[in-house]
Design goal:
By secondary structure, the protein is α/β, with parallel strands linked by helices. Helix content is 36%, strand content 17%. The N terminus is likely disordered. The chain binds 4'-deoxy-4'-aminopyridoxal-5'-phosphate (PMP).
């Protein structure tokens, strides 16, 4: 078989030795083999405890105990590497003067399975059984890439072994197709592991609880308990529980298999033990001397803290402090940190393909993510451009708008109109449409192109709309319609530029003006998108469909950078009309890491998690908790406004806050809040509890009460 070919089938692994893998394999081989009309091969890549079989010539090969047991029920059974000593594969091989190699074993497995056959590959013991000094059974599973069926003996400790096995398999990106819980001892014999005091009733209670608990915990990891097999007094009798398990596994076979990680799988390089960890002080000293942080001086930086772990809604610092997160790491971590499904999605993708160029190649993660985005986005969005961050998404959107106008014969439309107080990122094009003061346009004068700024949308989200707030936009559009390619703004919430929530009617009116002048509307949903304001996209508050929209942040689930630009069919068709001197219909952008598969696969999972969650209810609850928790701040002298929309809460201070001092205070109160300028604000993960939000709000109240802002 071509070594790059793929096996179909399952790898059967034990959660421990003596879990009854071979018993299960023999029956699964027969049941699945029948469904496959005989086209099933059982393989034991390494078998120890073999006895030489003499055939008269002295070269009869080996009698392999597991293979013989399976062959009694399914004749197409074979062991590949056989050793006499009944011990771990690496030890048995070295006693025989041989060395096992994972890739070699994987290749032999592939060669041993005829084309079109299902493979049932039985491991030896559990995941961390060594094959040589560097590699384990887990590496062999990764090389083969087959979904894994875990067999666990129903005895004391089985939950621990089973769930640890699930966790390690999923962490390495392997699919766990299911668990088979197996009773390996007759009830009368009792299980030594249950303790000498345990009577039959205790034993039954424990074993039944094992089954229920395993089912519950495995389900949380997305793994089904395929069967709980009772003790089989008659080894030859049919096992109905396994028939049901085989039926489910057959269904699994009908779906696509994950791809294996070989042929170019390198050995794990196990780091030499005891690599000493630098102290927190050393880490921070190097950081202070050499690292730039966002918006800080290299030589006199603001203090930073060492984060070492983040789980759920908590960020853990190197000194052991645990902080309740109020920032979602700048709008991204909507599912909290360390979500197992996101980690597993990324790990799976790492093992398949972490990156390939997008020029001339495509891949399923990109297509799957584009499909999801177009399904969720406002109707009319038809094309997706993947960018490597929010800022780059904005750059691409602005280029799209200019190319569209050039192609439409409006070559003079090369400027943008945007409200004051906006924020769109830190790259030059994006910065040129940020608020000129916050974006330091004077500092960069001569470098940044000059665009048009209109008054900030003045009507508050929660107050009556004043139609005069659109006058400035109308005036500039009327006067400069020949120069403006698009209006670009953040819908409903102006984020980093001031945390300002404006009236949906403003957006509605602006969209009408854009339409009237043939000027494109670009909505930057990078911060607001995916539920943060209480709608999936903030534009939904106004019922506005943009021509171009930018997304990022929550899309990534907080796992890694990425963004996307969505465009209407009309925008893409417009760009297409350009003559050769005007770009020839191609969009002039193509970053190296465009549509990075790790980002795409993780973002797909993030969207699936979001859409399967009661996100509206969660955001509504967070909104209520924020309102209740922050409203009292208004009575405090340092505060001049309190605003809450969806899962965003802002207390505006009268004066710019001392960020370093305030952060010390917040950390001492067990919360992670990073204020900016005059705004002390919260945008907690959607999975935050009422207690989390209450603690965040009480810390902010405390800061105002203490006169820190
Ligand atoms: N647009 C908006 C509205 C944003 O809030 C941000 C990030 N704060 C960006 C664009 C830039 O995104 P990124 O930091 O991923 O480049």
């Amino acid at each position: 078989m071509d070594p790059s070919g793929r096996l179909r089938g399952f790898f059967v692994a034990g959660t421990d030795t003596d879990a009854g893998k071979t018993f299960v394999c023999a029956r699964l081989a027969r049941l699945l083999g029948r469904v496959a009309a005989g086209r099933l091969s059982y393989l034991k890549p390494v078998q120890t405890g073999c006895t030489p079989r003499l055939d008269g010539t002295g070269a009869g090969g080996w009698s392999a105990p597991d293979v013989d047991a399976v062959a009694a029920l399914w004749p197409q059974a074979k062991a590949l590497a056989c050793f006499e000593p009944p011990c771990s594969p690496h030890l048995a091989a070295s006693l025989a003067g041989e060395e096992l190699a994972c890739r070699d074993l994987a290749r032999r497995c592939a060669d041993a399975v005829p084309e079109g056959h299902i493979a049932l590959v039985e491991g030896a013991g559990g995941c961390w059984v060594p094959l040589n000094s560097q590699e384990t059974m887990l590496d062999l599973m990764l090389c083969l890439g087959l979904p894994v069926v875990l067999v666990a003996a129903n005895r004391l400790g089985c939950l621990n072994h089973a769930m640890l096995s699930v966790e390690v398999l999923q962490a390495r990106g392997l699919e766990v197709a299911g668990i088979i819980l197996n009773r390996t001892r007759p009830p009368a014999e009792g299980d030594a592991g249950l303790g000498s005091q345990a009577g039959p009733a205790d034993e039954l209670r424990i074993l039944e609880d094992n089954e229920a608990s395993l089912q519950r915990f495995a389900a949380k990891a997305g793994v089904p308990l395929l069967a709980a097999v009772p003790w089989q007094a008659d080894a030859a009798a049919p096992v109905p529980e396994l028939e049901a398990a085989a039926a489910r596994l057959s269904e699994r076979l009908a779906r696509p298999q994950p791809r294996s990680s070989w042929p170019s799988w390198p050995s794990w390089s196990v780091p030499a033990g005891g690599e000493s960890r630098e102290s927190m002080a050393q880490v921070l000293a190097f950081d202070r001397a050499h690292l730039w942080h966002p918006y800080t001086s290299a030589l006199k930086p603001l203090p930073v803290r060492e984060a070492v772990a983040a789980r759920g809604t908590r960020i853990c610092l190197a000194d052991g402090t645990e902080l309740v997160d109020g920032m979602s790491s700048w709008w991204c971590a909507v599912h909290g940190y360390g979500n197992p499904a996101l980690k597993a999605a990324m790990a799976r993708q790492v093992h398949e393909m972490s990156h390939v160029m997008f020029g001339g190649l495509s891949h399923r993660p990109a297509v799957a993510l584009a499909r999801r985005l177009l399904d969720l986005a406002p109707a009319g969005m038809r094309h997706v451009f993947f960018a490597d961050s929010g800022s780059v998404a904005v750059e691409v959107a602005l280029k799209m708008a200019v190319q569209y106008q050039i192609a439409a014969g409006h070559g003079s439309r090369r400027r943008f109109l945007t409200p004051l107080g906006g924020y769109h990122g830190d790259t030059q094009g994006a910065m040129s449409v940020c608020d000129p003061v916050n974006g330091m346009h004077t500092l960069f004068s001569g470098l940044l192109p000059k665009h048009y700024f209109m008054e900030r949308p003045s009507s508050r989200f929660d107050q009556p709309f004043d139609p005069r707030s659109l006058d400035d936009a109308r005036r500039i559009l009327e006067a400069r319609q020949d120069e403006i390619a698009c209006v670009v703004l953040e819908p409903i919430v102006q984020g980093a530029g001031g945390m300002w929530f404006y009236h949906p009617r403003y957006l509605e009116g602006l969209a009408e003006l854009c339409r009237a002048y043939g000027i494109l509307l670009v909505l930057d949903e990078i911060a607001t998108g995916f539920g943060r304001t209480g709608k999936l996209f903030a534009s939904e508050w106004a019922g506005v469909v943009p021509d171009i929209m930018c997304v990022g942040k929550a899309l990534t689930g907080g796992m890694m950078t990425g963004g996307a630009v969505l465009a209407s069919g009309a925008v893409a068709e417009g760009i297409e009309q350009a003559g050769p001197a005007e770009g020839g219909g191609v969009l002039m952008h193509g970053p190296t890491f465009m549509a990075n598969p790790l980002f795409c696969a993780t973002a797909c999972q993030s969207l699936d998690l979001l859409m399967a969650s009661p996100w509206q209810e969660r955001v509504r609850s967070i909104e209520a908790w924020l309102k209740a928790g922050l409203a009292p701040c208004l009575a405090l002298p340092g505060a001049c406004d309190v605003r809450v929309l969806g899962a965003i809460g802002v207390v505006e201070a009268r004066r710019p806050v001392d960020m370093a001092r305030l952060q010390d205070f917040f950390v001492s109160r067990g919360v992670w809040i990073r204020p900016f300028n005059r705004n002390v604000y919260l945008m907690p993960p959607f999975v935050s509890s009422e207690e989390d939000v209450a603690l965040l709000c009480s810390a902010i109240r405390g800061a105002f009460e203490a006169g820190l802002c």
